[in-house]
Amino acid sequence: MTREESSKVTRRSIRLASSVTDENPEPKPSHPPTVADLTFGEESITLDALLSNFPGRRSQILDLIRLIGPLDSPSLPIMVYGDASTGKTSVALQVFRHLNRPFVYSSCRTCCSPRLLFESILNQLLLHSKCSSNGYASAKRCDKPSDFVNLLRQALSDVMETLGRKSMGKMLYLIVDHVDLIKDWDKGAMILQFLFSLYSVLKMPQLGIILISGLPPDVYYSNMGYTDPLPVYFPEYSEDELRQIFLKTQVNKKLYSAFLDVVLRPFCRVTRRVEELSTTFSSLFRKYCVPLDDLAISPNEDLKRRLYSNLKPHITSSLNEIFRVSSRPHDGDTKGERRQKASYSSENGEELEILDFHMSTSAKYLLIAAFLASRNPATLDASMFDSTGGMDNRKRKRKASEKSMEKKEIAEQEAVMKGPGSFPLERLLAIFQCIASVGDSSFGEEEEEEEATGYDKESNNMMSDILLQVSSLCDANFMIKSGSCPLEGSIRYRSMVSEDLCLKVARSLSFPLSKYLYRR
Amino acid sequence: MGKENPAEKTLNLIRGRLCDPTFVFRPLSGSSDSNYSKLKFIVSTSITEGCNNSILLLGPRGSGKAAVLDLVVGDLMEEYPDSVTVIRLNGLLHSEDICAFKEIARQLCMEHHLLFSKMASFDENSQFIIAMLRECGLAHKTIIFVLDEFDMFAQGKQRLLYSLLDAMQSVTSQAVVVGISSRLDADQLLEKRVRSRFSHRKILFLPPSREEIDSLLEHLLSLPADSSFPSGYVSQFNEKIKNITSDSRFKDMLKTFLNANSTVNSLLKFIFRAVSSMNLESGLLSLENFKTALSSMQRQPKLEAVRADCSILELYLLVCMRRLEVKEQSSYNFISVMKEYKTIHDSFQTSDYYAQNVCLRAFEHLREREVICYAENRGQSQAGEYRPMKLLISASELHQGMRSHACCPAILLKLLDH
């Protein structure tokens, strides 16, 4: 049962170990950093252990080792690429653990600007660690590529000298992770180009460069062009490889294997990412084990069948929930996240009735009003919300001719493309008043007149409150401000709520939403 | 330690050669009409006759412009010690004027053992440079300015180029400006005032001819006969290399590779890949090494993404998008793709029908992988589902990829066709 956790733990510990050895802090005061810290730090592992640690990555590991080459041999830049969670970073780092050679690892995920990236690389090379005594400052201040090249050259030649004295080889490797993120940086194209041509700019063959990217090399081609590094491709794991990965750290392999027989195939059709599968499998496996008293049991055919029939109803539901847990590991506090959660879970029948967050009644009406204003064309408002409360029965439509059908289809397509429409605040308030009065009237028929007028009176002093509600709905991302209309100059709003969620809200108010919704 | 495996040593030697551009380009510079001799002639006359000059080296990326220049500079430094100073700038790093002047001042200070002040202003730096140019001219020392990525310096106001070339108009100075660019129209980018001061000498770098490639291969791969290798091994290795390079299959491979990219650097990468997969037990290269190198160099990432990375659900979405494109629907978003997905499911009763949120996530995966992307950047106020999308993969790639996919359902292929 702990398989997933432990896989996470090993993965983390890899990154942690690397960050402790070369990136940062808390070196014991008695131990000043030396060049030896540039190696992986732990005991090196044999090639066999390395290969067995990463099922399905054999050819990639061998390829990488061959490209890095034997001791002291210079190397051209390498680019490791592949999808998320295919083991790029861990393989690269563990390969260096196996080779036991000095390297510098910086990830563009943690170093989110050129300056941080450059300084992190320099800090590691200069064996500088940020701590309270130096005010967490970097060794060198450097935010331009030109300064970086000068400083890097200097730092490299110093490190090389020390390495040479300690006979630790003549090569140092620079691993830059998550290169694809640079694309979104400010002036990212420049930095990328710089990084890709760093090898030829530096002209120091002692520095081997390894770039790790989530995207294939072809997305980096720009009209500027540069000589691209040697590609090493990490494909997504196949089904068999996934099985090996999941079984690797299991205690009761037989039981888990029986479990995988059942679940792996259907889930693989949706996604093959280890991180996503592992979270789903952990909860499913718990359900799978519910009928069992003894988790160490090795199941026979009969038991397997029984367990399967027990699990079967859960599979379909969790197939449709597969991303829910992994995408949002913690229950968010903001309403926006809950809204998404609510709309994600809305597919499940049993949850449809329950609204899993609290809202005031007027906020609910506002939400519905905004939804209606976004979906219905403004020209139909009058007929929808006339004095009869939208109960009018529209005339039976004439049989549509072929041409009008075609027109309708095009209009429909356009509507899908446009998404929910935007509306001014006045329209929202008008619809809100209409539906709120209808909603109230449904409680007591005889008091209709009184109630409606009473509400009108009340709404005048409630106006500021309603505006507050509107702004809090905006904050919660139920509605967004979509820019002002150039003609009117007023701000327009747009509803972001899915139909399922709105139906749920309407049901909790017992409000007949479908009656007011215009269907093409 | 002392007893090293000869195979490993060979590997180290050849890899070292491949990573050392001066070694690679040395034999190509032998003949009298090579770029090396042309460039060397121009630069050396300006050294001996004390005149100013400017040259552009043009050619595709990886054709050895910088390497040949380095060769020339290195040789001239040996020939005329103490009278050549080289200042290197790179357009990628120093395209800003302030930064470029500072870097020139820094390198000049380093060269002449002066104290460089980081705080010096732009004006001070430029006055310093002009003064240094005059001093060097009086002392008959030549300064060679190497401007890599020359086209990047031509962006903006071109102050650097103007002040360098303008300073060179005076009789006292003695400098050579060498621009390196992969843009063949680099001199057209110059402003009028800069262009009139530029000499318009250009040296074009062409891809190597067939004979040159053959001699290059031999130069790179054959082991020296002398030295510490066991003599039997050297002859065996060289014999094997000769066998491989004269093999017609190898020639075909080389031809297909050079058809895609015929610069020297890409050839080096190809050989590097092949050599690094050398069998260390036998210590010999084989034709197989080159074959695997070729296949790993010529990748089609988009095709691979479909073949190896996409799950069945993601393939469904791609097929739906493709079908919408075939229907000539001008633009589509997630909602319309879901509609298509639903119609497919309704008419064929496929087993892969998932909830919208699962599909949305699969959609996001595809977008992360850059197989699809948003058609336009504006409209970010709209939720992702409603933003128009487009495929970044061609129909044939999709087709080919799905055909070679491990477990692509037959129905999908059928749906893709019509």
TrEMBL record, chain A:
It is found in: Nucleus. Residues 328-340, 401-411 have a biased composition (Basic and acidic residues). Residues 53-198 form the Orc1-like AAA ATPase domain. Residues 256-305 form the ORC5 lid domain. SUPFAM superfamilies: P-loop containing nucleoside triphosphate hydrolases. Residues 1-36, 326-346, 385-415 are annotated as: Disordered. GO terms for cellular component: nucleus. GO terms for biological process: DNA replication. Residues 359-517 form the Origin recognition complex subunit 5 C-terminal domain. It holds the Pfam family AAA_16. InterPro entries: AAA_16 (IPR041664), ORC5 (IPR020796), ORC5_C (IPR047088), ORC5_lid (IPR048866), P-loop_NTPase (IPR027417). Keywords: ATP-binding, DNA replication, Nucleotide-binding, Nucleus. Belongs to the ORC5 family. This is Orc1-like AAA ATPase domain-containing protein. It comes from Eruca vesicaria subsp. sativa. The lineage of its organism: Eukaryota, Viridiplantae, Streptophyta, Embryophyta, Tracheophyta.
From TrEMBL, chain B:
Residues 216-401 form the Origin recognition complex subunit 4 C-terminal domain. It holds the Pfam family AAA. Its main location: nucleus. One of its GO terms (cellular component) is nucleus. It comes from the Eukaryota. One of its GO terms (molecular function) is DNA binding. InterPro entries: ATPase_AAA_core, ORC4, ORC4_C, P-loop_NTPase. Residues 55-201 form the ATPase AAA-type core domain. Gene3D superfamilies: P-loop containing nucleotide triphosphate hydrolases (3.40.50.300). It is found in: Nucleus. One of its GO terms (biological process) is DNA replication. Keywords: ATP-binding, DNA replication, DNA-binding, Nucleotide-binding, Nucleus. PANTHER family: ORIGIN RECOGNITION COMPLEX SUBUNIT 4. Component of the origin recognition complex (ORC) that binds origins of replication. DNA-binding is ATP-dependent. The specific DNA sequences that define origins of replication have not been identified yet. ORC is required to assemble the pre-replication complex necessary to initiate DNA replication. Belongs to the ORC4 family. This is Origin of replication complex subunit 4.
